[in-house]
Fold these 3 entries.
Entry 1:
Amino acid sequence: MAVVQSYAADHILLEVMAVVAMIVAYLSCAPPNVYCVENVVSVPPSSWRVTRDDMMTIFKTQSSFEESSVEFMRRLVEKGGTGESTHLSPSWTNSKDGQTAHKDSIEGAREEAKQILFPIVQELLQKTKLKPTQIDILIINCSIFVPTPSLCAMVCSEFGLREDVLTYNLGGMGCSANPISVDLAKRLLQNMPGSRALVISTEIMTHNLYTGNSKGFLLQNSLFRCGGCALLFSSRRQDFFQAKYKLLHTVRVQVSDEISYGCVWCGEDEKGIKGVALSKDLVTIAGKAMKKNLTRLAPHVLPIREQLKVPLTQAAIMLISKWKKMNLPLADMMTVPKGAMPSFSKGIDHFCIHAGGRAVIEGVQKSLCLRDEQMAPSFTALKEFGNTSSSSIWYEMDFVERFGGLRRGDRIMQIAFGSGFKCNSAVWVAMRVDQSKKGVPLKKD
């Protein structure tokens, strides 16, 4: 009792204990951190590889294309930014012989999905030394191909995941679906502390050859390629020591006006031929959506001095404009400043901008005032693998790991655009650098 009374009389000790109790209470209430333990990207079989000449042979083999359509796609292929070693599924590559027409089938699409998904899941499990039964959550996003049974069911059946694994199959969300999957995994993991999530992003190309002659629909034939990524996320505290990245922020923006809603549209042309139409206003709409996303993201990643640029510049524009309108003294000597964009390079070390096409990447570069070397991950991913839809930002992350000079503590921003119209972003901090990857190209078969 005397000891307790002496402690009670010690005001400093009581204050220290109160502070410790507050810290413990705060930590117990705060959501757990979410880590990316490992990330793997797909390199499809060498038999799927296509050059630009192969692409033109494939197009010419389809008897439905008019000469003007073939010429239009040729210009797109040459100027789109893709290189000589991208990949397409056998339903396309069979046409490289100049005689076999494209065959669209559900079984062909299923086989393509197996060839993409199974190897990257197997590699991820080997790298993390996990058993499939240690996965608590499975999330797969694929926009166009949404079969029954689902892609999640396909992976569960192949690898023997637990019967109580939580599965989510996301479709129709376009090229920005990976950050959506990441955000969903984050929310689930934070509500299930100590659990693991396997996230897979892909796009299956078997169904994606448009065989009509409407220019808006022909764009898809020249842009998209096969690919995918598999990611292991965890909210287990002990995974702090082996994690590659910690997730700092996710921001999702959905722009719902009529023009934005229809700028990427899966439908039929005037002759009833199915395809995905891309609007000529796509780059402009993507820029507007990105501005809304970055406005929300900026307070989380930028120093105060960069955040103040925009409101201070807007105030100066309003003040000087009114001054000149009222023709006050020295009005002729004043110039209305241009709108300001904060420098995200002040808060972000590496940028992974969705490789949607050369025009999209160049538009983002101009808007964010980024240097060529900062855009290298996006341009390289586009050249080496094409637009692999939702997985493209992880091909770019892989490039950053190999050639981007990634260091522990660096912050990486991924930003992607998708139908609807959506702009979604994720910001990571590097916790571990895989030295075995540095300077080593991603091996192709």
Note: The domain at 35-302+342-430 is CATH 3.40.47.10 (Peroxisomal Thiolase; Chain A, domain 1).
Entry 2:
Amino acid sequence: MRLDQNIYLSHRTDLQLPMSERLLPKDKVVVKNINSFKFVEKAINCEIKRQEEILQTGINPAQETRGWDEIKQRTFSQRIKEEAHDYRYFPEPDIPPILHKKEQISTLKSQVPELQAEKIIRFSLQYAIPEYNSEILTRDKKIADYFEETAKLGKKHEISAKKIANILINQKTDVAKILPVSLIKSIIASDQTAKIDDAELDRIVCEVFDANEKAVQEFKNGKEASQMFLLGQVLKKIGRKVDIVLVTNHIVKKLQK
């Protein structure tokens, strides 16, 4: 498998500006013949950093084709491309030019969903969380939407968005099975609960699983009600009030192995 990526050049990278005030990219750098998606991500990050460093000197990055050096973990120039014809772009004779009115273009722009790069900055500013956390939360739209809904509910109970973000990231909450309102309730309860270390929790969960093999198998066969039964047995065996979200996540991870 060989992958190519197009990284468009721009003279302005301030994503906080409205779309209408940004300079649209017209040139690009092509990084060719990358053999994995992992290296694609590394090449993009490397190229963004390289172009930012060039822009800071007041020079515009050159439009060119570059390769990826897996050993040195950096891109390298292969050939310069100055104009569109260097890429052998030819008009399609069977497709006539398509003209749009300004109103049509505005309508199309309004229908474009928020891009991840824009969402990262908005999350950091709106919810006062580190950009690193924003990047993790916005990788998946379902998680991003879940975070925003939970943060909205949490605000009513004076639970910070930063705390919610940390729980989602560090505890890897299963957003498909734990509703935002349930997460908020568990956070409120956890502020008044006792601590339990991972080793003790893992030991108790294993003991409950060994004693209830039928319920474990039923869950794996699609009977989700068995999860609640196992949760109740684990909490009973713990014998004190602990963080239900923490226990639930631990059980779910065990059941999915």
Note: The CA atoms of residues 71 and 99 lie 47 Å apart.
Entry 3:
Amino acid sequence: MMTDVKTAPKSPPAIPSLRLLGVRVDSVTMEQAISSIAGMVHSGKIHHIIPVNPEMVMLARKNAQFREAIERASLVVPDGIGVVYASRYLGRPIPDRVTGVDLTKRVAAVAARRGLRVFLLGAAPGVAELASLRLRSEFSGLIIAGTYAGSPKPEEEAEICRLVAEAAPHILLIAYGAPSQELWIMRNRERLKVPVTICVGGTLDFLSGAVRRAPRPIQRAGLEWLYRLIQQPSRWRRMLALPRFAAAIVMNSLSGRTEREHPAQ
């Protein structure tokens, strides 16, 4: 059952986090994530949420700014199945995946019920508009405050920030891909003044129908990455991060390096 914004606990229990190859990941369930986000909307503070997968972990090891953006997030949810498997291998199992697509739909459901305004930013031209139509069709009463493609280029930031600020959303979904979307938020979150920003990567592509999501059995088997690779063979270079991530996790474990747990921020 989804948590209602008005009944969300004021002081939820601290969510533990662990570090995979030095990169923070919170051990959070979907229900905990939704409860936390619901509380953030009216907290009077600015929050950003980042879903993390193995590819992003490997990228964050090399990119200090990206790693800092993850570190400063209000919530870092375990998106990729590889992250879940790695946590189990290390003996600190994360309950399950919290995918960007499923998280976005759950957030949209809460927003529709509570009258919260949502802005869709990023993806290719026209994709956010299609995703908006589908979300509003699925979640009656959902208020889409605005949609805009734009780009994460610094020269476009002033105009994008103006558009978002004028729309005054409670929740901003940003889909520029990692690490561009995370770095964009770190540069602009204070002037946007949006209570909750969620980095959603390719989620708008799936929601719009531009990219077909894997069938449920393939999702449950943890093979969505393979299904997407078949659809988009050009992603093969990016997929090389998966075996590198697995090898690095095993090597770190065998060398006796430990990743301490910390409470989520």
Note: The beta strands are 16-20, 23-26, 47-52, 75-78, 117-122, 143-148, 171-175, 196-199, 262-263.
